[in-house]
Task: structure prediction
Amino acid sequence: MTETLKKFVAGLELDTRMLGMIGALVILWLSFNMFTDGRFITPRNIFNLSVQTASVAVMATGMVFVIVTRHIDLSVGSLLGLIGMLMGTLQVHILPQFLGLEHPLIWVITIVAGVAVGVIVGAAQGWVIGYLAVPSFIVTLGGLLMYRGAAWWVTTGQTVAPLDSNFRLLGGGAEGTLGEGLSWLVGIIATIAAVVMMVLSRRQKNSHGFKLKPLWAEFTLGGIVIALILGFVTVMNSYPLPKGAVRRIYEARGEEIPQFAVMHGIAIPVVIVFVIAIIMTIIARRTRFGRYVFATGGNPEAAELSGINTKLLTVKVFALMGALTAIAAVIASARLGSVGNDLGTLDELRVIAAAVIGGTALAGGIGTIYGALLGALIMQSLQSGMAMVGVDAPLQSIVVGFVLVLAVYLDIAYRRRAGQ
Amino acid sequence: MTHANAAHPLVEMRDIHVSFGGIKAVDHVSIDVYPGEVVGLLGHNGAGKSTLIKVLSGAYKRDAGEIFINGEKVEIHNPRDARAHNIETIYQTLALADNLDAASNLFLGREITNPLGFVNDDAMEAETRKIMGKLNPNFKKFADPVSALSGGQRQSVAIARAVYFDARILIMDEPTAALGPHETQMVADLIKQLKKAGIGIFLISHDIHDVLDLCDRASVMKNGKLVGTVNVDDVTDDDLLSMIILGKKPGEETITS
Result:
C-alpha cells in the first residue's frame, strides 16, 4: 500500500518539500476550524486571508531573489511605509490641485511615482552593497531606520486620508473585487493557460527525445491544478457582499438594486499577487537574469568567472525588491484607505519569515516563488487563526517566533536527509 | 618543434606583473604558446602559476605587461573579454554553481535562448547530452544539481564547458588533481585530441610526469619569477625538479632568485 503510494507520488515528480508545506497548511486550517467551531474554513475567512496575505506575499517573491543571492533586505517594512506616505501625500494633497479630486489618472500617476521611488531606493542600496561591498545586513539595517524616519518627515507624522477611491479598489474592499462573472472568466482563462503550457512543455520534451512523465501523471497533475483554480474561484464566489455595500455600489452605478445575493469574487490585490507570482516565476526560471541570480547564489566566484557581472546583478535584484515593495505599499495603504506613520512596521520580518518558511535557504542558491507564497499564507493563517481563537497578542508573537525557528530546523533536517 | 611553421605565437604574455599589496605574485614573467602546442606551467604552491594564468582568463587584473593573440595586442579586463577571444579555462576549483544542473553550468553566461529571449533548458540539455556522450559516456545525471555528482563527473562538466564553445586557447589548472587513474587517462586523451585540432593549451600541474608525457615545452616559476622555459624532450625529470626546487636552469650553477 505504502509502496504504491510512493510510486504514485514519485511518478508525479512533485517537490516533496512543497507537499510537506501544503500538509502543514491543511493541518493548520483544520485545527483552527475545529477550535473556532467551523468559522475558519468559510468563504468569508478565506477571502479575508487572501487579502491580508497579499502585501507580504508580493514582497516575499522579491525577497526570494535577495536571499538566493546571499543577501538580506531588512528595509522593506520601512520602505513600504515611506513609499505609502509619499503616494498618500501625492494623491491626497498634490495631484488634486492640478487634476481635481478623484481624477481617473490620479491612481495611475501615484503608482508610477511610487514604483519609481522603490526602484531608485532599491538600486541605491544595491549599488552600495554590490559596488562598495558594504554587507547587505548593514546597508538595509541603516535603511530600516532612515526610511521610517523619512516617512515621518513627509507629513510630520500626520496620517494621510482619505485616499483616492480608484486607488482604494486595489486594496480589495467590498468594491475592490472582480465580481462573480469576471472571476469565472479569469478562472477559465487560467485553466486554459495551464493546460496549454503543460501540453507545450510535453511536446518540446518529446521533440528532444527526453523521457516523458507517464500520461496518467500528467492528467492527475492537470486535474489537481484545474481543481485548485476553479475551487478557489468557487469559494470566492460564495462570499456574498453585505446588503449595505450592494446598495451603495448599485446606487453609485445608477442601477436597480438586485434582490439576489451579490458575491465578492476574487479580490483585486489577490489578482495582483497571482500576476506578480507568475511574472517572478518566469523571471526565475526562464530568463538569463533569473539564471544568474541562482548561479550567483550557488557560487558567486563561479558566476563571476563565467562572465556574469555580479555587482550589477546585485543592483538589479535590490531594484526589483524596491519595485515590489512599492506595489506592496499600494496594496497595504489601499486596503486601509489611509496611510499612518506605522504602515509596514515589522513587515520585513514577516516577509523574510515567509520566504524562509517557503524553503528559501539563507545560505543562498535555493528558493522558489510558489514556496514564498505558501510561506506567506502559512504565516498569515497562523496569525489570523490565533486571533480568531482568541489567543492573547503576546502569546501570538511567541508562537509565530517559535514556528519560524521550527520551520527552518525542519527544513535543514529535511535537506540533510535528502542529501542536498 | 611543433610551432616551427607558425609566424606568431597563438598567445604571448609579455612582461606580466601582478602584485598584491607589496607582494610580487608575478614578477615580470613572459610565456607563450603556439597552435597545437601544450605548454606546462610548473612550480610550487605560491610560485605564481595560477595568478599568471588568471590574468589571461580575465579573473585578475595585471599591473603591467601586455597580451598578444596571433601577434595582435589585446585587452583582457574580465572573464567576458577572455571568452570573446576564445580563451577557455578549467579552474582547479572547477567554478561550478553547485545548485544548478550540468546543462545550466555548461551554458552559464552563454545560455541558449528562444526568439523571445527566454532560456531554452530543453535545448541546452540536449546539447549537453551530445557533448557528454563524446567526453564521458557514463554520465547520466542530467537532471540533478552538480552537487550530487562525483568528483570525476564534476570535472567532466567543467571540461565540457571549456571544450563546447570552440576554444582556441585552453587553460587547464590542475585538471587531474581530483581524478582517479581512469579519468586521468581520459583527460590525457582529450588533451592529445585537442592538440591535434590546433588548440593551444596551458597546462598547470604539480606532477612532473604529467608534464613530461603531455607537454611540448615547460615553463617553470619560483617565487613569482620565471626560472626558464625548456623543451620537454631536451630535459630529464631531474632537470625539471631542480628548476622547481632550486630555481636553477639546466647547465646553470648559481641560483637566480
